[in-house]
């Protein structure tokens, strides 16, 4: 049900923060509240990561120190890195700023899928708690944030530590993919009328590109993690040389994810800076088009440069040279950005507040990190510095001095909008100087130590290396930074307690979020604005003379006379996320819990699917603008399919790479049976045909026929699965088990995951068919059948690819 | 083994295309711009030079990199030039019959176009197929023709000369190009990073004048496809972006809903709609 807010009641519901009690936050689907939840959670984890860092710094302050044992130190540096990347910077950038600012900047009432948004937050929270609960059961993960194989194999790292890490990351991956899918569809589909891509605030551009990168980068990581979990739990050998495999595969899968990830962390920060610098320089952003181009280009290139993380893995001089070149190229768009920021400040009339200070510090510190990054594009130099403190300095300047400073700038900037309160400037300047000085004291000397030979990830060092002075200096710096963070927290509390309320537009801002009250009402915009230019709100306030008669942003009288429709809160997101966490817990503790988790997930999905009585008329359709060309859910489904394709591509790629490397037979061409599988393939193709008929029947309103076709489709799917079960049993009898050889493990994993997708499809279609008995799938909800159908056809196409590449290719060519 | 007539099919094909173009212009009496003629001629020249010139000589001398370069030219240079050089009216009469029009609509649907080209790309570089292609001249010619044909189809959403089979919107084009990089990397990366020579045809000691071992040759060829083509695509990406920015950058004083509808996002998603 959508909640209709009558126009006359609108004035009474001004503040999104104050509506409902504490419990209402558990079922909230308001993007602003979800943003706040993201922010609080991430800042909490930042506290944890900070404490870990400080304890590590105490340990390193003196040579031959024994404050922390080597074991605890390993856990701390692993979790410090994992936390900062997956639980702090990424959720702050996308989850917090993306949610708080992006929908407001594009003039939307919410994101495209509000419940999905809540879901991705709760999965994030439970996944993070899951991973951290590792400390309660035998210690935290301790294999480094990029968990290189084969250190992570059960043989080298027994116990549950790496299990928590790997499964936790898989859970967090769901959260990231769902969240980014949501943002992508929101930005493509929900922009206010007139806001073309070229009029979007640069922050929105950055969120858009970062979301696309999440969608393409996480599937390979998930595949890598699944292999790792399989190696650890059921004794496969994806990463061990025992069966002819190579640990380098992990490096590839990880860095295919890992390099785009760097930009996923950095792009939201670039976006924030591109908002605060123009605002506080009292100038428009220099080179809007070039900035948008640089943002898009970073996304375009970042997927093809992962090799530069692997110079030390022995790819050979030709590959090193090529990756070196492509890595240097990617410095160009980043350079464009830095120049644009600098040019924006040129001749500006500065508002010297804390947000601006952080923004300036960002530009300088990020540039330092960028320069050392270009140095590492040189394989010779990289080999020298790889694994040393120089690298530690480099990425802390990029992510700490870069992203984190930008986020602090962003928090100071959007704080009045979020909370309706101002932050104290004196405390602000104090925490800025403490954090800035502390940061540079901590991390700048690491360049020196790194060049002096100090390696990363050592828990202590001998006195004879003469590293003691700078290490002590860094530890002092770290504590100065820690005090700065404390002052920041005090400033937050002080602001929340203060009576001073913020006006709607405290900074004389340029973008639409400043046109609505602080804090915004639940529905954000009483009337959806019409946008006629970049910096729409600025034009409206200070429009050029010839346009002054006509406001740049015209409100649309589009609420249709029957108030504003907002979707109702939902309990299902938190339930679904809890179920997913149970699946993970069960995998480690007691397998039966996993089944309970799966059941909860299934029921929650059904609940979510049928929650709105008017499925065919999702409230998003009534968000004041009917100009959207295509249903958001359809775009979402296609995006999801795109991301899934990459999941299968990674599995197929692994199969192809490992083909022919088996140490023992039998292999594909000796064992695979074409006639049987051809029959299965035919059955699956026929099922797609029935699916088409089912959809057509539902669209005509012939529910009975539609239901029968659905049963037929699912039945053929079951026949296919039966064939697969037969094939698997036969191979098992012949001795080809998952653990037997490389062919066995890659084949079962790939074909098995496809089979799992078929199974999910069968369940999906059967659910729809049974729901139609209850009249829950009427003609106007045929779209629900269409989604099931899209998924079904997709799974069929994947099978055709698998069949041709794995079954046919070898047989036909006889090679 | 050398000279332009080593593979007579190439000059014959190029001459036939050139003749068809000239006849079409002469018979119809319609105008083609100098740019179009130049683009078409450049496309044909690239085709001829790639398949008959020194590059082909090197390919025959078992230089894998030369073969990869041929493929890149055939798929990334020739098709866009031919498309740029062909005015819409020249093609319109061919798609007039309803079945052809329907087929053309399906083939030029971005998802189909993407799928066709990349299926060929992935299938072709599978070692058994590649080996067969190298050893069987007829199969080789067929594959090259297929590469050009699917190349034209895959470039269609970017450079279509026909409004009735339209281009993608600019943001759609950029996303499309980005996605093209992924299968390309998926094919090139295993070739580049392989520890052994995976195509036996190229494993014999070199007949070419360069001091490249078969493995280094394979790595270089893979990199041409991966990083080299990546740079090329980056340049195309840049061109598209600036065309878009120049069109869209001007602040229009009054915007109607029609203008919004013509905006990139809208066109992008409506083109993603599956063909009914």
What does this structure look like?
The complex is a heterodimer of chains A (815) and B (276). With 815 residues, chain A is mainly alpha-helical. Chain A has two domains: 2-513, Cytochrome c oxidase-like, subunit I domain (Cytochrome C Oxidase, Chain A), CATH 1.20.210.10; 651-813, Up-down Bundle (Four Helix Bundle (Hemerythrin (Met), subunit A)). Chain A contains 22 helices and four strands. In chain A, the strands form two sheets. In chain A, strands 1-4 form a two-stranded antiparallel sheet. A two-stranded antiparallel ribbon of chain A has the order 2-3. In chain A, helix 17 (632-658) runs antiparallel to helix 21. Chain B has 276 residues and is an all-alpha fold. Chain B has one domain (9-250, 263-272). Helices cover 74% and strands 0% of the residues of chain B. Chain B contains 13 helices and no strands. Chain B is globular and about 55 Å long. The interface between A and B is large, with 60 and 62 residues.
Summarize the structure.
Chain A has 815 residues and is an all-alpha fold. Chain A has 22 helices and four strands. Chain B is an all-alpha fold and 276 residues long.
User: What is the architecture of the largest domain in chain A at the second tier of CATH?
Assistant: Up-down Bundle
Q: SSE string of chain B, helix = H, strand = E? A: HHHHHHHHHHHHH
User: Could you state the order of secondary-structure elements of chain A as H and E?
Assistant: EHHHHHHHHHHHHHEHEEHHHHHHHH
Give the distance, in angstroms, between the N- and C-terminal Cα atoms of chain A. 60 Å
Shape of chain A: globular
């Amino acid at each position: 049900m959508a909640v209709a807010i009558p126009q006359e009641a609108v004035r009474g519901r001004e503040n999104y923060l104050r509506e409902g009690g504490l419990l209402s936050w558990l079922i909230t689907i308001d993007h602003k509240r979800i943003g706040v939840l993201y922010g609080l959670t991430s800042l909490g984890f930042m506290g944890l990561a900070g404490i870990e860092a400080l304890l590590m710094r105490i340990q390193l302050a003196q040579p031959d120190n024994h404050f922390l044992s080597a074991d605890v130190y390993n856990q701390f540096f692993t979790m410090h890195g994992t936390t900062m990347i997956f639980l702090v910077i990424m959720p702050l950038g996308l989850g917090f700023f993306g949610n708080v600012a992006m929908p407001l900047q594009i003039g939307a009432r919410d994101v495209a899928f509000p419940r999905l948004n809540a879901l991705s937050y709760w999965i994030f929270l439970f996944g993070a708690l899951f991973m951290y609960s590792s400390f309660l059961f035998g210690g935290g993960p301790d294999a480094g944030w990029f968990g290189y194989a084969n250190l992570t194999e059960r043989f080298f790292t027994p116990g549950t530590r790496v299990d928590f890490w790997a499964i936790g990351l898989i859970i967090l991956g769901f959260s990231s993919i769902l969240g980014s899918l949501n943002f992508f569809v929101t930005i493509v589909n929900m922009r206010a009328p007139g806001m073309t891509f070229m009029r979007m605030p640069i922050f929105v551009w950055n969120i858009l590109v970062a979301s696309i990168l999440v969608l393409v980068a996480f599937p390979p990581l998930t595949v890598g993690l699944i292999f790792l979990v399989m190696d650890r739990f059921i004794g496969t050998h994806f990463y061990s040389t025992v069966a002819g495999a190579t640990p380098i595969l992990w490096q590839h899968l990880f860095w295919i994810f890992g390099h785009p990830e760097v930009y996923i962390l950095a792009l939201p920060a670039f976006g924030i800076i591109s908002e605060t610098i123009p605002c506080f320089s009292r100038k428009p952003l220099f080179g809007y088009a070039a900035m948008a181009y640089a943002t898009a280009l970073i996304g375009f290139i970042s997927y093809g440069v992962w090799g530069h993380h692997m110079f030390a893995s022995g790819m050979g001089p030709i590959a090193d040279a090529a990756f070196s070149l492509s890595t240097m190229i990617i410095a160009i768009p980043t350079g464009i950005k830095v120049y644009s920021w600098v040019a924006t400040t040129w001749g500006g009339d500065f508002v010297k507040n804390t947000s601006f200070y952080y923004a300036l510090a960002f530009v300088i510190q990020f540039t330092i990190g960028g320069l050392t990054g270009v140095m590492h594009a040189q394989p010779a130099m990289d080999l020298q510095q790889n694994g040393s403190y120089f690298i530690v300095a480099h990425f802390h300047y990029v992510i700490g001095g870069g992203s984190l400073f930008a986020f602090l700038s962003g928090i100071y900037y959007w704080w009045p909008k979020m909370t309706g309160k101002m932050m104290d400037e004196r405390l602000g300047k104090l925490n800025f100087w403490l954090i800035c000085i502390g940061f540079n004291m901590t991390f700048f000397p690491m360049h020196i130590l790194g060049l002096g030979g100090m390696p990363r990830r050592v828990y202590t060092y001998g006195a004879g290396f003469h590293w003691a002075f700078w290490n002590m200096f860094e530890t002092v710096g770290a504590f100065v930074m820690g005090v700065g963070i404390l002052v920041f927290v005090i400033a937050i509390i002080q602001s929340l307690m203060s009576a001073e309320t913020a006006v709607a537009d405290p900074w004389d801002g340029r973008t639409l979020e400043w046109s609505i009250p602080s804090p915004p009402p639940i529905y954000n915009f009483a009337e959806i604005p019409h946008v006629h230019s970049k910096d729409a709100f600025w034009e409206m306030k200070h429009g050029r003379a010839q346009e002054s008669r006509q406001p740049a942003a015209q409100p649309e009288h589009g609420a249709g006379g029957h108030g504003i429709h907002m979707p109702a809160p939902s309990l299902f997101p938190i339930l679904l996320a809890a179920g997913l966490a149970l699946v993970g817990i069960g995998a480690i503790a007691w397998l039966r819990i996993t089944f309970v988790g799966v059941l909860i997930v299934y029921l929650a999905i059904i609940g979510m699917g049928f929650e709105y009585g008017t499925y065919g008329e999702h409230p998003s359709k009534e968000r004041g603008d009917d100009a959207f060309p295509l249903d958001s859910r359809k775009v979402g489904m296609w995006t999801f399919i795109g991301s899934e394709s990459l999941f299968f591509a990674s599995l197929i790629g692994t199969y192809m790479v490992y083909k022919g490397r088996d140490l023992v037979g039998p292999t594909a061409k000796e064992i695979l049976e074409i006639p049987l599988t051809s029959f299965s393939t035919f059955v699956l193709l026929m099922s797609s045909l029935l699916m088409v008929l089912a959809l057509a029947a539902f669209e005509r309103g012939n529910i009975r026929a539609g239901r029968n076709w659905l049963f037929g489709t699912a039945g053929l799917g079951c026949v296919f699965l039966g064939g697969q079960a037969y094939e698997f049993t036969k191979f098992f009898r012949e001795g080809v088990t998952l653990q037997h050889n490389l062919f066995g493990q890659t084949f079962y994993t790939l074909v098995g995951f496809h089979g799992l997708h078929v199974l999910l499809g069968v369940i999906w279609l059967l659910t729809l068919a049974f729901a139609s008995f209850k009249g829950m799938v009427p003609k106007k909800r045929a779209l629900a059948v269409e989604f099931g159908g899209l998924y079904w056809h997709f799974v069929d196409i994947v099978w055709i690819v698998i069949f041709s590449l794995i079954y046919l290719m070898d047989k036909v060519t006889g090679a | 083994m050398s000279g332009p007539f080593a593979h007579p099919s190439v000059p014959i094909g190029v001459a036939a295309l050139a003749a068809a173009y000239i006849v079409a212009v002469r018979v119809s009496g319609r105008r083609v711009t100098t740019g179009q003629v130049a683009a078409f001629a450049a496309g044909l020249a690239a085709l001829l030079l790639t398949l008959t010139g020194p590059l082909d000589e090197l390919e025959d001398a078992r230089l894998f990199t030369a073969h990869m370069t041929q493929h890149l030219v055939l798929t990334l240079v020739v098709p866009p030039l031919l498309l740029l050089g062909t005015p819409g009216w020249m093609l319109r009469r061919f798609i007039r019959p309803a079945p052809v029009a329907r087929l053309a609509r399906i083939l030029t649907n971005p998802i189909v176009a993407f799928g066709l080209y990349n299926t060929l790309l992935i299938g072709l570089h599978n070692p058994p197929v590649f080996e067969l292609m190298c050893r069987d001249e007829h199969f080789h010619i067929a594959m090259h023709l297929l590469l050009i044909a699917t190349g034209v189809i895959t470039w269609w959403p970017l450079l279509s000369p026909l409004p009735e089979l339209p281009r993608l919107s600019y943001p759609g084009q950029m996303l499309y190009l980005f996605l093209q990089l992924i299968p390309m990397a998926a094919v090139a990366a295993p070739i580049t990073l392989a520890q052994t020579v995976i195509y036996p045809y190229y494993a014999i000691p070199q007949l070419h004048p360069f001091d490249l071992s078969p493995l280094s040759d394979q790595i270089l060829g893979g990199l041409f496809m991966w990083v080299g083509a990546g740079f090329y695509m980056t340049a195309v990406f840049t061109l598209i972006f600036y065309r878009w920015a120049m069109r869209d950058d001007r602040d229009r004083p009054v915007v109607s809903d029609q203008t919004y509808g013509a905006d990139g996002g809208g066109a992008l998603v409506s083109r993603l709609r599956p063909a009914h």
